[in-house]
Amino acid sequence: MAKKPKDNEVRSPGATTIAPNVLVTIAQLTALQVEGVVGLASQPVAVNKLFRRGKGEGVDLEFHDGEVTADLYLVLAADTNVRDVSRNVQQEVARALEDMVGMPAGEINVHIQDIDYKEAAG
């Protein structure tokens, strides 16, 4: 017999599932909003990872024990402090994943793939 909710309990009408691509989009947009990030870079492709979920331009997500681990491949502006921008990206992406979908963030790994000198010269 199903457990009857108490008067002060809120009963959920069903389950919510979130597609991995939604988490990828959250990570992408959040990283792009951090000052100093000018773009996302293509990440290296391993043959055994070609058809994995949780992969998008500049972002590779893995899910372990209810946590999400992210690898972000970024292009930074020439006049930025790489360490500061990387830390800001890590903090903001972890916060966005936790706040928006309630999923705890494990590691948020930042890979600087390029520095954009064209913007600095322009």
List the topology elements:
Elements: H1 20-33, E1 37-40, E2 55-56, E3 59-64, E4 67-77, H2 82-101, E5 105-116, H3 117-121
Parallel strand pairs: 4-5
Antiparallel strand pairs: 1-4, 2-3, 3-4
Write up this protein:
By secondary structure, the chain is an alpha+beta fold. It has one domain (20-117): Alpha-Beta Plaits, CATH 3.30.70.1350. It has helices at 20-33, 82-101, 117-121; strands at 37-40, 55-56, 59-64, 67-77, 105-116. Strands 1, 2, 3, 4 and 5 form a 5-stranded mixed beta sheet that branches. A hairpin with a 2-residue loop joins strand 3 (59-64) and strand 4 (67-77). Helix 1 (20-33) crosses helix 2 (82-101). The termini are far apart. The relative contact order is 0.21. The model is unreliable at 47-51 (pLDDT under 50).
